Amino acid sequence: MKGALTNVPITKEWDIVGARQSGRNMARDLGFGSVDQARIATAISELARNIYLYAGSGEVSFEEVQGEAPVGIKIIASDNGPGIKDITKVMEDGYSTSGGLGAGLPGVKRLMDDFDMESNEEGTKITIVKWLR
Amino acid sequence: MSSLKADIGNYKKLLEEYMKTKDEAVLYQAEQFSKSSIQKNISPDEIVNVHYQAIQELIPNLDDEVKESFNFLIETMISYGLAYQEYQVLREKQIELRTEIDVAANMQNTLLSTTVPDVQNIDIGAKSIPARQMNGDYFHFVQDDEGNIGTAIADVIGKGIPAAFFMSMIKYAMESFPEDRMYPKVILELLNRVVERNVETGMFVTMFYGLYDIHRHEFYYATAGHEPGFIYRAEEDQFEEIDAKGLLLGVKKNVKYNQYVNEINNGDMIVLLTDGVTECRSGDRFIESDEVLDVIRKYKDLSSQEIVENVYKYLERLQDFTLRDDFTLIVIKRNS
Predict the structure, then answer these.
(1) Would the pLDDT of B259 be above 90?
(2) Fewer CB within 10 A of the terminal residue: chain A, N end or C end?
(3) Chain B residues with beta carbon closer than 8 angstroms to that of A47
(4) What gap in Å lies between CA A120 and CA A106, rounded to an integer?
(5) Nearest-CA distance from A121 to chain B in Å?
(6) Spatial contact of B205 and B163, defined as CB atoms under 8 Å apart
(7) Which domain of life is it from (chain A) (predicted)?
(8) Can you give the pTM of this predicted structure?
(9) In order of start, what are the domains of chain B with their CATH numbers?
(10) B163 vs A86, B69, B94, B187, B334, CA distance in Å?
C-alpha cells in the first residue's frame, strides 16, 4: 500500500465527489480520525473544484508519504489551465472568499500541514500534505 | 460549584457533570468554556469533535446511527471553522489598517494645520470635522505684511483618503506662493494650474478664497465653484448670500476667475462653509441653509469660535451624531 498512487481525473463536477471519496478512503486507511478526514476531504473538494471551474480539466492524485511524521497523505492537484497570475493575491485572506466561493486556497492551507503551489501559463500544480499525529 | 478550568481538556468532565446534575452552574461554565475557546481560536468543528469523543466515552453503547450523524455534523462544520479562522485574520488586519489610518489622519492634521490670525477688531472662528478619519475639507489662513487676512476654504469632491491626499497637494501649492498681498483671483488661477496638471480627471476641488483688508474693511473674494457663503448685515439683522461664480479647480486649463469686493461694516459677519454644513441631513430631510443661519443668528453675540462650535453641536445632534459629510465652518466678525 505504501507509495501506492491513485489518480482521479477531474473533468466534470461529479468527479469532485470521486476525488473526495478516494482521498477519504486513503486517509481512513492510514488512520486519520473523523475531523482530519473531514478536513482532508474539504481541502480536496476545494482543489478539485478550482480545477473544474478555472482550468476545465486536470487530476487529483493521492500518495502515502513519510517525513515529519511516520505517516502522511500527500495530495497533488494539477491542471493545464491558464495558471494563476498573482499567487500572493489568491493566498490573501478574504480575496477569493469575498465572493462567497468557499474556503479558497488560504483555507486549504489551513486545513493541511504543508502547502506548495507552482503556477505558470501552462498550468497549476498544488501539493498538500497532512501528517498523522 | 466546582471550578473546572474552561479548557478543552475539561469538556468531558463538564459534560459529565451536566448530565448528572442538570445544574445551571455547569451551563454557566459551558458559557465560559465557549468564550475561552474563542480566545484560543478553537474552531467549531473541533468543539463538535470533542463533544463526539466525550459522549462516546460517557455513553459506551452509543447507537451507531448517532455516531454517524456526528461525522456528518463535523463535515458540515469544517467550512464554518475555516470562515471563523479567516474572520479572525481579517479582524486583526482591520485593526492594523485602522491604526495606520489614524496615524495618517494625525499626520494630515499636522500637515494641514493653520493658525487663526489674532487681529484687533476682527474675531475669527473656524472648525473642520471630517466625516471619516481623513478630512476632504480644508481651510487655511495667511496674513500678508500689512496684516490683511487671506482665507481659503475648500472641499474635494469625494471623501476619505484620496480626498486627503489631494488636499495636502493644494496646501503645499499655496505655501509656495509669495507672502505679499495676493488677490483671490490670482490665487485661484495659480491653483487651477496646479490641480489641472497634477490630478487625473474626475477629481475636482471647490474653493472659496477671500482677502480681508483690515484697514479699509473690504472683503475681496473669488470662488471656484464653492458653496456660497453669507454675510450677516448687522444693521438689517439679515444674511445676504455671497454672490460669486467660477469654475471648479482642475476642470480645464487657463481658467480666469472673477473677483468681487464687499464692504464689511461694524458688527457684520462673514460666514464661509462647505456643503457638509448646508447639505446635512436629518433622517430623510435635508436641512435648509436658513436653519443653519438661524442658529448663527441666535448665537451672534458670542465669540466667533463659540458660534462655530454651537453650529457644529446643533448639526451633530440633528444628524444623530454621525456626520455624513466633512464639516467646515468659518466665521469672521468685525467688532468695531
Answers:
(1) yes
(2) N
(3) none
(4) 19
(5) 29
(6) no
(7) Bacteria
(8) 0.67
(9) 8-93 (1.10.1240.30), 114-334 (3.60.40.10)
(10) 29, 56, 21, 20, 33
Q: State how far residue A133 is from chain B, nearest Cα, in angstroms.
A: 15
Give chain B positions within 8 Å (CB) of A110.
82, 85
CB–CB contacts below 8 A, A to B:
45
Which residue in chain A is spatially nearest to B88 when comparing CA positions?
A93
Whether B131 contacts B159, CB under 8 Å: yes
User: Distance (Å, rounded) from C-alpha B153 to C-alpha B208?
Assistant: 5
Interval B56-104: pLDDT, tens: 999 999 999 999 999 999 999 998 888 888 888 888 999 999 999 889 8
* Burial readout B304-329 (b: 16 or more C-beta within 10 A, e: otherwise): beebbbbbbebbeeebeeebebbbbb
Q: What are phi and psi for residue A61, nearest 5 degrees?
A: -125, 155
Indicate yes or no: CB of A35 within 8 angstroms of CB of B46: yes
Report the residue count for chain B: 336
User: 3-class SS at A120?
Assistant: strand
Inter-chain CB proximity A111 and B75 less than 8 Å: no
